[in-house]
Amino acid sequence: GRVVSVGDGIARVYGLNEIQAGEMVEFASGVKGIALNLENENVGIVVFGSDTAIKEGDLVKRTGSIVDVPAGKAMLGRVVDALGVPIDGRGALSDHERRRVEVKAPGIIERKSVHEPMQTGLKAVDSLVPIGRGQRELIIGDRQTGKTAIAIDTILNQKQLNSKATSESETLYCVYVAIGQKRSTVAQLVQILSEANALEYSILVAATASDPAPLQFLAPYSGCAMGEYFRDNGMHALIIYDDLSKQAVAYRQMSLLLRRPPGREAFPGDVFYLHSRLLERAAKRSDQTGAGSLTALPVIETQAGDVSAYIPTNVISITDGQICLETELFYRGIRPAINVGLSVSRVGSAAQLKAMKQVCGSPKLELAQYREVAAFAQFGSDLDAA
After folding, report:
1. Which of 2, 100, 277, 346 is catalytic?
2. pTM (2 decimals)?
């Protein structure tokens, strides 16, 4: 095919007969792209990388393959970009298999209800909003409320659990997907993990703020494909998407440039499907299919504590519960700043250890009663003796 027009990371290409939706293409300059819009006259292609080298009239080749990324144990300890290319300067990846980025989530028969605990090592989470292996638990809060801290602490705390693990089925591998974060933040994170020797069981997928929107959109799916390798081979993995609101913004940018009609808050109509097809892939496999699991901890940043905005409500309805963090609690020195009243775990209690269940039954009730009394105590001075 030939490039008709190019700009803002979107190329319109004429030709390319019989191309599949979501197929990789290669431009003459060596830059890759993915075909998202198949229209009557031309194909709308989003470019993975800089579009400055692409000119009108350039040749575009089909690769014949849907986007795939490397997966396997060779990835552990590495930092890769959204296409699975190492960016940590430690050479190419050793032996690995390749997995499709977009696959269908496991069906109902292939699943099993969540019953094993996924310990985060944070008492507030493990006691009040317990998470099971194969669950999806949303971490939601304003900026600077310690959302990433909960996620990273969870990875670091797997260190002592993994060192005690006797078999492959007890180890928990971690995948951390950084979407639209500063490069310095990602570098800092790599340093924290390597100093704690936590990189040996972790994979980092980074699509930083300086990367083009298509890569920020793709990164969660790439990370998910890497996590699914463990899930489908009878192992357990945890994947953290930090954060999905940035992915939605990147997707909105791509969609508007592709001239798709905007909906609420200018997001495209399928932004719900964007997140649901991603989070549905976190599951607990049945014993027949190897009993592996993939646990997801998506992160959403709210604006001024507004949990009822479009993206937060969408993701809350997809996940199996949420951990709500609040600025006010954070500044009062309660960290992790979890609002126990708003945070729930819809399947986690089934996965809690017996001992933990006995300990944590009463504090929940006591905290609820405390909040009730505290609300009344505010009027204390206004009430007369009657």
Report:
1. 346
2. 0.94
